[in-house]
Amino acid sequence: MRFTDLVNETGYHISFEQIVELRTSEVRLRVIVNKSMETTDLLIHPHPDSNVKSLQIDFPNYITYSVIYDDYTNWNDAEQFQGEAFRIYSKSNYFDFIQKESNLKAIMPVENLKHYSLSCIEHKVDIISKHEPVITEIN
What we know:
Order of helices and strands: HEEHEEEEHHEEE
Largest sheet: 5 strands, antiparallel
Radius of gyration: 15 Å
Helix content: 10-25%
Strand order of the largest sheet: 4-8-7-6-5
Number of strands: 9
Structural class: alpha+beta
Low-confidence stretches: none
Number of helices: 4
Number of domains: 1
Shape: globular
């Protein structure tokens, strides 16, 4: 499954489970999220009656990531992205901030980087990476 496949899906919600820096040769960052059409199923998961799929999202490498509790996020009409729960930004304040406050431009062309985002029911996870993640269902 590709991240762009999830970007194109609509009508479901995701919840944040965990994020881990693995630092192996294949995976540097792993994010686990749960996906369901019903938010109630996400809130009662892992109850046996919940209809939830768990997804493992592995990034071979990353520049930076951020996890913020949803209550502390701001909507910004100037930002541009594709997707609902799974997003790819073409314009974002987070990416602009990382470029401004780091030496990123001196190390690599920023045109090769993407801002991936997971808009979860209680969290927002942002990842800047050169590599598309590998996604595996792990139920």
